[in-house]
């Protein structure tokens, strides 16, 4: 627990509607920097802090800008553009190779210096690409053979699966000096720099891995380069981070950050207003006005690079018929969901893409139109007889998740679809393959500005949908291959459009509901800016009292 020697009360003096409650901050003994508590819905789904195993929205919040860092970063507060991070510069050698200059003098949390050896190890078979994955890609044979892992050091299956989604054709990472590394791909790839900036490509200490007793010991206290280091992680309870004062980017402004799991929205808000928490995350839009009635508090946030989806398993006897899945997509009044549950604070996007794709954005694309008559006609053509269709979801893991599901079920019911909600306890139960797996909730992010980062990474041949056996389409996989290997812009854009046509219209793998948004409440006395992402930035320059 945090050792608090005294409490300091700070806040604005102006009174507003409702009672003014002054937030409390813990001041750590012998250090003038404050410590804060952040109330979150969930810290980690996997009960680990492994950036490859915890590929989630909640993981993004606690990992990035605090714990994990990559070679190329994203400017969280300035349009998420690529910026130098653990690498100071990079250059293309050819269509398959990128060389990077590492930042000298970067210290890991244990005080050791980061070198090219750590980067090479981070992308090794031992860390990323398990031996059992070799059957999936012949290019993996180019990786050096490694000894059998020590007992307890075997990688969970989620790790190599995530690594292959991020790096489907990586064949070699080699050091050409203490501070220089080269990434070599088996095929041409215009997105190598983007892949280096995405989560999952973050650098770890080889020494920290080798000195850990087991994978789980390491995964709950990884040695990385971020501005804060792990003090204590109790799954399902809290995560305590402490300032890494040798951080290359400057002394962190906070002594400690304590993330606590508070699943109930009301408890997060009440704890914020009473001063128990300094930040409350995942605030539903209908709660914002109530919080801001107190003049000492504000809510920041908005849309982020994440879309909420409904996902289909085409192996289900009813959903095997494309007409039924198409009926699902046309029965949804997406704008009604945005207006009623989000108070218009988000939007219905143009399918699974974002404007920040720049010239790869398909501007004339739209989600399937809301057309109940067409949906009913499709069901009639399919010969659907009202068989029950299970719909798996978690209990408000996503903001407004349950309310959204209830609205969707009524919309589907109105066209003749008999959809039945099945609430599950965790993602393992959501993904579990069984005769009842049919429809589920999900979201997709775009960790860099190219379609490869989302539609290919999540729905292509190495994507999670196909990895767990939910959906596949031969032509869509061909288009994914073009997107990953072609260097011609027009060819790639045509392939992306065709992939959208297949995945969203002809043989639906999913249907987009709305762009996601996230809102964080805090005292006005804290000078902090929310990023257009789940990630919370507490580095120097983005926190002051």
Give a short synopsis of this structure.
Helix content is 26%, strand content 22%.
Account of the protein in words:
- The protein is of the alpha+beta class and 545 residues long.
- 26% of the residues lie in helices and 22% in strands.
- It is built from 17 helices and 18 strands.
- The strands form four sheets. Strands 1, 2, 3, 10, 11, 12 and 13 form a seven-stranded mixed β-sheet that branches.
- α9 runs antiparallel to α11 (372-382) and α16 (474-485) packs antiparallel against α17 (489-506).
- The radius of gyration is 24 Å and the shape is globular.
- The model is unreliable at 1-22 and 132-146 (pLDDT under 50).
Name a few traits of the molecule:
alpha+beta; seven-stranded mixed β-sheet; 26% helix; disordered N terminus; five-stranded mixed β-sheet; 545 residues; single chain; 18 strands
List the helices and strands and how they pair.
Blueprint lengths: L3 E6 L14 E5 L5 E7 L16 H7 L8 E3 L7 E3 L2 E8 L2 E6 L13 H7 L35 H9 L3 E8 L2 E6 L6 H6 L8 H6 L3 H5 L8 E7 L3 E6 L12 E6 L3 H10 L4 E2 L7 H5 L4 E16 L9 H9 L3 H9 L29 H11 L6 E5 L7 H14 L4 E5 L3 H5 L7 E7 L9 H5 L4 H4 L6 H12 L3 H18 L3 E14 L22
Parallel strand pairs: 3-12, 3-13, 15-16, 15-17
Antiparallel strand pairs: 1-2, 2-3, 4-5, 6-7, 7-9, 8-9, 10-11, 11-12, 14-17, 14-18
Helix pairs in contact: 9-11, 16-17
């Amino acid at each position: 627990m945090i050792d608090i020697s005294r409490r300091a009360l700070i806040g604005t003096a102006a009174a507003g509607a409702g009672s003014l409650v002054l937030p409390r901050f813990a001041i750590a003994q012998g250090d003038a920097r404050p410590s804060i508590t952040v109330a979150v819905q969930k810290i980690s789904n996997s009960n680990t802090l492994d950036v490859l195993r915890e590929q989630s929205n909640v993981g993004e919040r606690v990992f990035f800008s605090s714990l994990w860092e990559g070679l190329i970063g994203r400017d969280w507060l300035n349009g998420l553009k690529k910026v130098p991070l653990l690498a100071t510069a990079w250059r293309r050698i050819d269509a398959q190779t990128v060389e990077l200059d590492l930042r000298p003098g970067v210290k890991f949390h244990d005080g050791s210096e980061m070198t090219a050896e750590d980067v090479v190890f981070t992308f090794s078979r031992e860390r990323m690409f398990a031996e059992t994955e070799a059957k999936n890609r012949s290019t993996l044979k180019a990786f050096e053979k490694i000894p059998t892992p020590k007992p307890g050091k075997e990688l969970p299956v989620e790790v190599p699966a995530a690594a292959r989604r991020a790096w489907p054709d990586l064949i070699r990472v080699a050091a050409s000096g203490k501070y220089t590394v080269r990434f070599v791909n088996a095929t041409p790839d215009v997105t190598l720099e983007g892949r280096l900036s995405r989560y999952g490509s973050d650098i770890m200490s080889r020494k920290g891995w080798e000195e850990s007793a087991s994978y789980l010991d390491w995964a709950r206290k990884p040695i990385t380069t971020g501005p804060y280091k792990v003090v204590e992680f109790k799954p399902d309870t809290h995560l305590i981070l402490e300032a890494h004062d040798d951080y290359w980017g400057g002394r962190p402004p906070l002594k400690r950050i304590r993330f606590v799991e508070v699943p109930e929205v009301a408890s997060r808000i009440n704890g914020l207003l009473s001063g128990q928490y300094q930040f409350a995350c995942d605030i539903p839009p209908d709660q914002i006005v109530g919080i801001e009635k107190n003049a000492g508090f504000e809510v920041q946030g908005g849309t982020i690079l994440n879309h909420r989806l409904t996902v289909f398993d085409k192996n289900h006897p009813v959903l095997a018929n494309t007409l039924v899945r198409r009926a699902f997509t046309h029965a949804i009044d997406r704008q009604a969901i945005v207006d009623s549950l989000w108070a218009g604070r988000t939007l219905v996007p143009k399918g699974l893409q974002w404007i920040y794709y720049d010239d790869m954005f398909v501007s004339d694309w739209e989600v399937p139109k809301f057309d109940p008559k067409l949906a009913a006609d499709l069901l009639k053509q399919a010969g659907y007889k009202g068989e029950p269709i299970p719909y798996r979801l978690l209990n408000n893991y996503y903001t407004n998740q349950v309310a959204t599901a209830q609205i969707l079920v009524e919309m589907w019911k109105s066209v003749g679809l008999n959809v039945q909600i099945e609430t599950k306890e965790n993602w393992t139960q959501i993904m579990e393959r069984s005769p009842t797996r049919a429809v589920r909730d999900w979201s997709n992010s775009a960790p860099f500005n190219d379609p490869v980062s989302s539609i290919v990474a999540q729905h292509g041949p190495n994507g999670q949908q196909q990895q767990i056996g939910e959906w596949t389409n031969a032509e869509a996989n061909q288009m994914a291959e073009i997107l990953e290997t072609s260097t011609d812009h027009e060819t790639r854009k045509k392939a992306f459009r065709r992939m959208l046509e297949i995945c969203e219209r002809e043989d639906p793998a999913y249907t987009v509901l709305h762009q996601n948004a996230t809102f964080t409440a805090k005292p006005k006395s804290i000078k902090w800016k929310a990023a257009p992402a789940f990630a919370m930035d507490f580095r120097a320059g983005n926190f002051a009292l």
